[in-house]
Amino acid sequence: MRKKISIVSSAFNEQDNVGPLCKAVKEEMAKWTDKYDYEQIILDNGSTDNTLAELRRLAAQDEHIKVIVNARNFGHIRSPHYGMLQATGDAVIYMASDLQDPPALINAFITEWEKGTPIVLGQKKQTVENKLFAFVRTFYYWLLNLVNDSGAELVPNCTGFGLFDKQVMDEIRRLDDPYPYMRGLVCELGYAKALVPFEQPARKTGITKNNFYTLYDNAMIGFTNHSKVPLRLAALGGFVLGIISFSLACIYLILKLCFWDNFPMGTAPILLAVLFFASVQLIFLGILGEYVGAILTQVLHRPLVIEKERINFDK
């Protein structure tokens, strides 16, 4: 009996991309028909265009294509992760549905996997994003690894696009994380990894679903899941600022007592000090809030996705 490869994608308003995606995956898997069967699982994440209609058409033409219709949009983290958990292959490949994760890398992923490497990650070496954004991304990975206290170094410029062996997926299922930071989680598990460098192409159709909120969300999940350093910096910063404030208050009092008439009190320094310390407190509260929010997500443990319909899973 042939082994099976599962290719998983999540789609939101990608009506012009799901067709070329399925065609490209089919062409790549045709190179491996003598060794592997495959399934292509695509989740429609609450699309408001004709993505679902296009997926129905594609699934009717090819039984390899399986569709999960989400009850609503469950976000950029939960929907892809849920799709990977539904895969039944001996290896699971995740790729975005916008074709910016090139399906042509499937061949390289499987080749590395056959060598016995349980995790094969696509690593962006070049991208079409502007230089400022590329710098911010590079700085983020550097900073995250600098403060990372999980003991596992995160691989920069890997977004989750890659291949994961069944034993890796079984371990991820056992962890049952309701809001996982996948690119960090696979590094923390400790399995051997291979990197496949690629140049990320420009999106040809549609608009990107990444915005400031989704990028910020990913960044904060990375910090809260892999480091307690921000919390400790907040505590240390509060302690240091407290000492500085007390020292300045003592100095100001001594100067006022010694030079009562020539050392006016004034409101400007007081207002500036109040505004400064108020902003510092808000920053520290925000850091604390991120950790409390992460804990709340784990405690509530809501379902990753509620399904509305499945297509072709009975074939």
Compose a concise summary of this entry.
This protein starts with a strand and ends with a strand. Helix 1 links the parallel strand 1 and strand 2.
- Judged by helices, strands and strand pairing, the structural class is alpha/beta
Major sheet strand order:
7-5-6-4-1-2-3-8
Main beta sheet strand tally, sense and closure: 8 strands, mixed
Instruction: Tell me the strand percentage band.
Output: 15-25%
Total strands: the figure is: 8
Overall average pLDDT: 86
Low-confidence blocks of residues:
none
Oligomer: single chain
Please report the distance between the alpha carbons of the first and last residues. 17 Å
Helical fraction equals 40-55%
- Number of continuous helical runs: 10
Shape: elongated
Order of secondary-structure elements: EHEHEHEHEHEHHEHHHE
Radius of gyration: 25 Å
Task: Explain how this protein is built.
The chain is α/β, with parallel strands linked by helices and 315 residues long. It contains ten helices and eight strands. An eight-stranded mixed sheet has the order 7-5-6-4-1-2-3-8. Helix 2 links the parallel strand 2 (36-44) and strand 3. Helix 9 (229-258) packs antiparallel against helix 10 (268-300). The two termini are 17 Å apart.
